[in-house]
Amino acid sequence: MGFLELDGLTKKFRANAVVDNVSLSVEKGQLVCLLGPSGCGKTTTLRLIAGFLEPDGGEIRVGGRRISAPGDSLAPERRNMSMIFQSYALWPHMTVMENVTYGLKLRGLTKAQQQERADTILAVTKLAELAQRYPGELSGGQQQRVSLARALVVEPETLLLDEPLSNLDANLREEMRFEIRRLHDKYRYTTVYVTHDQAEAMTTADLIVVMNQGVIEQAGTPEDIYQRPRTEFVARFIGGTNIFKGAREGEVVRCAGGLALRCGTGDFAAQGETAVSVRHHDIRITTVGPASDEPNWARGTVARQTYLGSHRDYQVDLRDGTHVHAVSPAEVAIPPGEAVWLQFPPERCRALAS
Ligand code: ATP
């Protein structure tokens, strides 16, 4: 049994289920990322967990105890959870120290206890020297660290983060991802982290839950989700890929234009056409091909080639007009207009169940 459990959780807005029968089990101390495009229901799921919304169906349990069900929900302040918002939500008229100790004061800790806990958390979040500053005197990254410190200092059982890094610039975002993971490794609070940024999810999560239109498409470790996507949606959303569709003959999928892909991995669709995912960097691009037609080879013409320092990005058009996106080592430089061969290694051709 997990520590935090969502069981058939459903939330409707105007008869439209934006969270639709979602079940998920989170172990104690796990960091779970809810990942998906805008509007897929991530924030609504988080708000249901926090208690800001009441479900229309299903329930939420923490440590085996039911905390939320239709018409029967524990108030947010009684859930022992801390939530961090996109907007930091710091008190502007309070110093960093006052912001951090505020929650402790509410919980009735003595001044000495407040000081001790705040000193520890400010040191861990590298804010000790800024303790007497006001939020307006801090950078975005520093403000976000204060909101983290404020959430952690109350020692919540569960930490909820809603796109916590989206207001930061790219460099700071990258730094803060590692910071969040470092703090998680230190405190091991059960954490649910909402993001639409796959790199953020890959860096921070033990478990990634990919959501699409209110349902869970796939849940797994970052490696599972990247290496073994089960659906076209997940393959496209995480990491970029080419999707080819065709009819299955044994292990081979025959696509339009004569391309035949032997698939060394994945699960074939139960019926109808099968989709095959091949990642951009798994395709080999060469000017020399096989003497006769062979599966997992295709002829095409370079439509676009971009030098990106460490590699080159290609668009190759097959004879039937299919665009293939491939990435090659930087030294493979073939100009637009040239005829090329593409090789799709069977062990990198992944059949998708749906
Ligand atoms: P984003 O990344 O853009 O924040 P999200 O995945 O977090 O997206 P939600 O905020 O959970 O998505 O919203 C899911 C759907 O529910 C959206 O279509 C949204 O418009 C709708 N929605 C959210 N809150 C309400 C509300 N209070 N009333 C009506 N519809 C709502």
TrEMBL record:
Q: Which PROSITE patterns match?
A: ABC_TRANSPORTER_1, ABC_TRANSPORTER_2
Keyword annotations of the record: ATP-binding, Cell membrane, Membrane, Nucleotide-binding, Transport
State a GO cellular component annotated for this protein.
ATP-binding cassette (ABC) transporter complex
Q: Which GO terms describe its molecular function?
A: ATP binding; ATP hydrolysis activity; transmembrane transporter activity
| Occurrences of domain ABC transporter (ranges) | 4-238
What GO biological process term is on the record, naming one? quaternary ammonium group transport
Q: Specify the domain of life of the species encoding this protein.
A: Bacteria
Which InterPro entries did the record assign? AAA+_ATPase, ABC_SmlMolc_Importer, ABC_transporter-like_ATP-bd, ABC_transporter-like_CS, Mo/tungstate-bd_C_term_dom, P-loop_NTPase, Transp-assoc_OB_typ2
State the protein's name.
Answer: ABC transporter ATP-binding protein
Q: Which lineage is the organism of this entry classified under, starting from the top rank?
A: Bacteria, Pseudomonadati, Pseudomonadota, Betaproteobacteria, Burkholderiales
